[in-house]
Write a structure and sequence with these properties.
Elements: E1 2-3, H1 8-21, H2 27-34, E2 42-43, E3 87-88, H3 97-105, E4 110-117, E5 141-147, E6 153-159, H4 163-172, E7 176-181, E8 183-186, H5 201-205, H6 208-212, E9 222-227, E10 266-268, H7 282-291, E11 308-313, E12 320-322, H8 323-339, E13 344-346
């Protein structure tokens, strides 16, 4: 960069840095001469702070107004039956069980889609059922199955049209902000099930004893486990289960009016009921790793000895479940944190 004029302050900074960095003993005199409007010209080094890329942090508070109990509504008579055709979102087992389950649920030209509508196009629309008016035309039949918890986010079933045609129509619909085909998932069934696998050698690897000398956790911290459910009768977990303070057990009433009946320990998004009992064992294993009770002379100890586990089930006894149900589970945990003052810290 060529320069013919310096302001006094800039001159002093430039000269000092040049002396310290470049090591030119006579640069100060040369730079002073350059301060004269028509004096000699000098070449200087440009020191710049390199700009960093833009980073964004996830902020739970940003989603407070977008999660609503009204948007978990089931509106279809088919809401309780098997999902329709779904994409593959899974770690496959060796026997291909995930593929066979997906094939059994699929029907010709019937597909389920997770659709996020652009709420600016809603007009008078204020419920899950009313969004069907935004899916009219184009020769594709759509049915609203249920809301997924976020305002404008619904599970939609298409029929009598090939998947490519449906995707093209959805992508051209100005009222739709985003969409993807619902997906089937299976947990990694290669995890060993022998009892010695649960020996806690990993605690030393993560320096858990050193952390425990500072804190062993708090029951005020709620961890949502989205998995196969949790065995809430387990001797090492019963004391550390989150209990919904606004719900009365087994009275078939939505006492806290959050849209979910009998969600005492969490919810079963696979069966659409309050029974989130684990029928596989994986979710209980995960919950135990997180918060198995310690110093009770039973079983093992969790990383956090007293965290409260919220049981959110979306996988069945074979470890298979759907993306849309996992989305509802995440939105439920967000709802409880942002609107019902439940201190969910980890999902």
């Amino acid at each position: 960069m060529r320069c013919s004029y310096f302001k006094a302050d800039a001159l002093r900074v430039c000269s000092r840095l040049s002396l310290e960095i470049a090591g030119f003993p006579n640069l100060q005199q040369r730079a002073a001469a350059a301060a004269t409007p028509h004096g000699p010209q000098c070449r200087r080094r440009s020191l710049r702070i390199e700009p960093l890329e833009t980073r964004q942090l996830l902020d739970a508070a940003g989603g407070v107004s977008s999660i609503s109990s009204l948007w978990f509504e089931n509106v279809s008579d088919q809401a309780a039956i098997a999902h329709a055709g779904a994409a593959d979102w899974t770690i496959q087992s060796e026997d291909g069980s995930a593929q066979s389950i997906a094939a059994a649920a699929a029907q010709p030209d019937v597909y389920d889609w997770i659709v996020q509508f652009d709420t600016s196009s809603f007009g008078e629309i204020s419920s899950v059922a009313e969004t069907c008016s935004l899916l009219v035309g184009g020769g594709v039949e759509f049915e609203i199955i249920r809301g997924l918890g976020m305002v404008g986010q619904v599970l939609v079933r298409s029929s009598n049209a090939p998947i490519e045609e449906v995707a093209a129509w959805l992508s051209e619909n100005a009222a739709i902000a985003s969409f993807e085909q619902d997906a089937i998932s299976q947990m990694d069934v290669s995890t060993p099930t022998d009892p010695l696998y649960n020996r806690l050698w990993g605690m030393a690897m993560i320096d858990a004893p050193e952390a425990w000398s500072l804190s062993t956790g708090s029951s005020n911290v709620v961890v949502a486990v989205i998995d196969t459910g949790v065995d809430y009768n387990h001797v090492d977990l019963a004391a550390n289960l989150w209990v919904n303070p606004g719900e009365i057990a087994d009275n078939e009433i939505d006492n806290d009016r959050n849209g979910f009946v009998d969600d005492l320990f969490g919810y079963n998004f696979l069966g659409n009921n309050g029974n989130s009992m684990d029928d596989n064992g994986h979710g209980t294993h995960v919950a135990g790793t997180i918060a198995a009770a310690a110093n009770n002379s039973l079983g093992v100890a969790g990383v956090n000895w007293s965290s409260s586990i919220m049981s959110l089930k979306f996988l069945d006894g074979n470890g298979v479940g759907y993306l849309s149900d996992a989305v509802r589970a995440i939105n439920y945990a967000t709802l409880m944190r942002t609107q019902y003052d439940v201190n969910v810290r980890v999902i």
